[in-house]
Amino acid sequence: MRQRVRERAIAAGFSLVEQTKLVTAASELGRNTVIHGGGGEVSIQAVEEGARVGLQLVFSDRGPGIADIALALQDGYSSGHGLGMGLGGAKRLSNEFRIESSVGEGTRITIGRWK
User: Fold this and answer.
1) Residue 74 — pLDDT band, cuts 50, 70, 90?
2) pTM value surpassing 0.85
3) Are 42 and 59 contacting, i.e. CB atoms less than 8 angstroms apart?
4) Could you give phi then psi for residue 36, rounded to 5 degrees?
5) What is the DSSP-derived secondary structure letter of residue 80?
6) pLDDT tens for each residue of 82-103
7) Alpha helix (H) residue ranges in 12-98
């Protein structure tokens, strides 16, 4: 998934710094999808808004969901044994970030990065 995101970012003309930010955010969200969501799917889509071009990534799973999204986004919070920088870090590395989650049904996180 990381390689595919990098390939798409290169094709969209992202700088090395932009590529790295997007791949890092994708890596963290992909990891969360596997570890906390029990697996899932990711879609990568090129997007255009006027003269702007970018990529939108959607991570979805059917895991336990996130009971308190605001808490999960706080630096230092971890539902596992990590450093608690994942969701908040992914949000900071993205230009757009949206999270939808229902306990017992799963989570869907959409991020966007513009060139």
Assistant:
1) confident
2) yes
3) yes
4) -90, -30
5) S
6) 544 579 889 999 999 999 999 9
7) 16-35, 69-72, 86-93
Tokens representing 89 are: 């870090």
Q: Is 9 left (phi over 0), alpha (psi -120 to 50) or beta?
A: alpha
- Both structure tokens of 67: 């009971």
What does the pLDDT look like over 16-72, one tens digit per residue?
999 999 999 999 999 999 988 999 999 999 999 999 999 999 999 999 999 989 888
Enumerate the domain spans of the chain: 2-114
- Write the class of the CATH domain 2-114: alpha beta
Task: Decide: helix, strand or coil at residue 95.
Answer: coil
Q: Two tokens at 74?
A: 């706080």
Mention every residue, 6+ apart, whose C-beta is less than 8 A from residue 46: 8, 11, 12, 53, 54, 55
pLDDT at 80: 59
